[in-house]
Amino acid sequence: MNFTAKGSPLKGLTGATLGFFFGFAAVALFGPTAKKLQVIMGISPAQVGLLVAIPALSGSLLRIPFSAWVDKDGGRKPFLILLLLALAGMTGLSALFLTRYPDNMTAELYPLILFFGFLSGCGIATFSVGISQVAYWFPQKKQGWALGTFGGLGNLAPGVFSFLLPLALSVMSLPAAYVVWSVILLTGVCVYWFTAFNAPYFQALSQGASKDEAKKSAADLYSEASRKQELFPSGGVVYTLVKSASNPYTWILVLLYFVTFGGFIALTAWFPTFWQSLYGFSVTAAGFLTAFYAVLTSLFRVPGGSFADKIGGAAASLISVAVLGAGSLIIVFTGNFALTVFGIMLMAAGMGVNNAAVFKLVPKYIPEAIGGAAGWVGGLGAFGGFVLPPVLASYVGKNGDAGYRQGFIVYALMAALAVLLILYLKKTEKRGG
Fold it and tell me: Which residues contact 264 (CB under 8 A, 6 or more apart)?
């Protein structure tokens, strides 16, 4: 058949990364404003923990079905739907704040704010869709670099917005800041619409090709081996979810990703409160420190993919979680600001590299169901962003300000578990398991 494809591997990577960047900003949705909302609305620390975590709930759970959808129709349609849902949530928050903030912001509005936060978090779910979309564009030997670049640059969004939102709040009202954020998200939807395309296989299917014809057309589209599509789905949404769920490696990768990516989302939401409450920093200074952590973690993810290409995903993962554990223990046992920052830098390095290494392993261990596996790993792994802030808040509730440091023992314990899982992974590899 005569087949023409829009885009290229580089354009596919660029479009998906830009879309994810705008959608992922919702990780920082309530972090910089949680302290102010707590005072105005009179809500408890536990409710604050839930508030900053709620975008991560939708952003994690929706990754599973939407990522699996990629194996059926490609990434463009599910990606756009998630961005539009996020835009609806941001628009709802903007309207609520415009009409009720600050004098009429009562505790009765808390469930509605949670609902709009849940919708806004749909943009976070674009990650697993984008992972699958990018993976299908690239041959396996370039997976680490491509997926590390996608995740690393897209992950810059929480850091950027953690810094920009406090600055915006210093020169404009909270409602105005959220309106501007909504306009930025709308711009992101438009950018994705015009730049991102499905991998050639899915484009051939949409032009009427059979699955066999689509595979041949996609494989023959580019003469250079570095641009050829090598990965193809084996079935539809249900098949790819069941197939990947039946592979035990999927669940090892889920747990590894829970530790570092779920942990990353949790800290991006938690750090504004951490810095303000424990060290007495202003909203702007706390936003800057949170942005420093989030940007550093994201930047480490980019070379982390190439590092995993070079030494192997399992080896890169093992080194990175050990570094994460060391950093978290430093924070637990010191109240010194400089040492705390150093510990956070170690955590950022470990999280960034492991986040890239895990998705280097997805196409290797579950090549027949990348979309489904990326959904399970990205979805349940990111669920840590919802689970961990309330856990961290519980340490504060029990031990006061000292609990802000003590809560990081959770990260040390998770890092120890991750080391055991990776050693098991490497052991089964040697046996050919």
Answer: 155, 294, 297, 351, 355, 385
Neighbour tally for 371: CB within 10 Å: 34
Q: Rounded mean pLDDT of 381-406?
A: 88
Environment class of 77 (CB within 10 Å of its CB; exposed 0-12, middle 13-18, buried 19+): middle
User: Residue 383's domain spans which residues?
Assistant: 9-196+236-430
CATH of the domain at 126: 1.20.1250.20
Report the C-alpha gap between 121 and 141 in whole angstroms: 32
Tokens (6 digits) for 61: 């759970």
- Residue 241: band (very low, low, confident or very high) from pLDDT cuts 50, 70, 90: confident
**Are the CB atoms for 405 and 332 separated by under 8 Å?**
yes
Q: Report the predicted TM-score, pTM, of the whole model to 2 decimal places.
A: 0.79
Output the pLDDT for position 361: 86
| pLDDT above 50 (res 7) | yes
DSSP-assigned letters across all residues of 369-410: GHHHHHHHHHHHHHTHHHHHHHHHHHHHHHHTTHHHHHTTHH
- Please tell me the total count of domains within the chain: 1
Residue 332 lies in a domain: yes
What is d(CA 213, CA 352) in angstroms, rounded to the nearest whole number?
A: 39
Return the higher-pLDDT residue of 175 and 228. 175
- Which residues, at least 6 apart from 99, have a Cβ–Cβ distance to it below 8 Å? none
Contact 55, 120 (CB under 8 A): yes
Give the integer Cα–Cα distance in Å for 109 and 44. Answer: 14
* Contact of 12 with 72, CB cutoff 8 Å: no
Distance from the Cα of residue 371 to its chain's centroid: 16
Query: Sign of torsion, CA 181 183 186 190?
Result: negative
> Closest Cα partner for 167 from 288, 270, 269, 52?
288
Which residues fall within 8 angstroms of residue 394, CB to CB, at 6 or more apart?
A: 46, 49, 403, 407
Closest CA to 121 of 35, 186, 24, 188: 24
